[in-house]
Design brief:
Blueprint (H helix, E strand, L loop, with lengths): L2 E7 L6 H15 L5 E7 L9 E6 L1 H9 L6 E5 L9 E6 L8 E6 L4 H18 L3 E7 L2 H9 L14 H6 L20 E5 H4 L2 E2 L2 E2 H6 L6 E6 L2 E5 L5 H10 L20
Helix pairs in contact: 1-3
């Protein structure tokens, strides 16, 4: 079964309680109850500085710990069918425990209704929490969706994507650190939350906004609040749109398809 994921970036300024409320609203938007939670905490008796673990708690206890400012990174999840890891999940990662700061939400299904609900939730959340960039994507399973949002394990969605580039860029190993917030995109997805800086990026001699509006095959732009837009691209056009944006050096994770080597036949 395919899984739908949402990732929001540029979230370091968001208070954990605001993220917790966004997580609750995510489950409301997809019509699933949240059944459990977990949080990250440093170990007082760890072998190394920064050693940490994840502790399972009820959602009520998580709320109290966040309220007392004891928690900065956490998960809320729904598990009703007994599937692993969950049926749906939301996470807030502050960056304190070695992971890329982000918010992410995932549900173990793919449908037009789910995409519409998650698109609406993304727009509302981005406006309320002042998030500059977000994506909605499809993965082949929930664990892949979780890893993809965090940039972990070299996970990729497209065959023309470098699965390691996004995390490297956000850990300062490349010159493109954090440029996705203003001057680059990770890749182009079915739904892309953009800000005004993104739409001013150059596609040749014209801004991205004008390039998108030049053809329906490049998707549609929909205003979702002050200086924020949702760029929607149909699945059948994603490869061509990514190719064009990658060639314009707009994509952090773009990897041009390598030409196949000719194999010499033995005489």
């Amino acid at each position: 079964m395919l899984c739908t994921g949402v990732a929001l970036y540029g979230t370091s300024h968001i208070h954990p309680m605001d993220a917790f409320q966004a997580g609750k609203s995510f489950f409301d938007s997809i019509g699933q109850p949240y059944t459990g939670a977990s949080y990250y905490a440093l170990l007082s008796d760890g072998d190394h500085e920064g050693d940490h673990d994840i502790f399972e708690v009820s959602c009520e206890e998580l709320y109290e710990r966040i309220k007392c400012e004891q928690v900065s990174s956490f998960w809320i999840y729904s598990q009703q069918r007994g599937t692993l890891p969950w049926d749906a999940a939301f996470t807030c990662q502050s960056g304190e425990f070695g992971r890329l700061p982000h918010l992410a939400a995932h549900v173990d299904m793919k449908s037009d209704d789910v995409h519409r609900a998650m698109s609406n939730w993304l727009g509302i959340t981005a406006e309320r929490l002042d998030v500059p960039y977000g994506i909605i994507y499809t993965a082949n399973k929930l664990t892949a969706a979780l890893h993809y949002a965090a940039g972990d394990n070299g996970t990729f969605i497209f065959p023309f994507e470098d699965g390691f580039a996004f995390k490297h860029a956000n850990h300062g190993l490349y010159d493109r650190q954090s440029q996705y917030i203003e001057s680059m995109l990770r890749m182009v997805y079915p739904y892309n939350l953009l800000n005004e800086h993104h739409l001013l990026m150059k596609m040749g001699d014209q801004p991205l906004r004008d390039w998108i509006n030049g053809s329906t095959e490049r998707g549609i732009l929909r205003s979702i609040g002050q200086d924020r837009w949702m760029w929607e691209v149909m699945d059948e056009h994603l490869a061509v749109v990514n190719q064009a944006c990658g060639a314009a050096d707009m994509l952090v994770a773009w990897r041009p398809e390598r030409p196949k080597k000719l194999v010499k036949k033995l005489p």
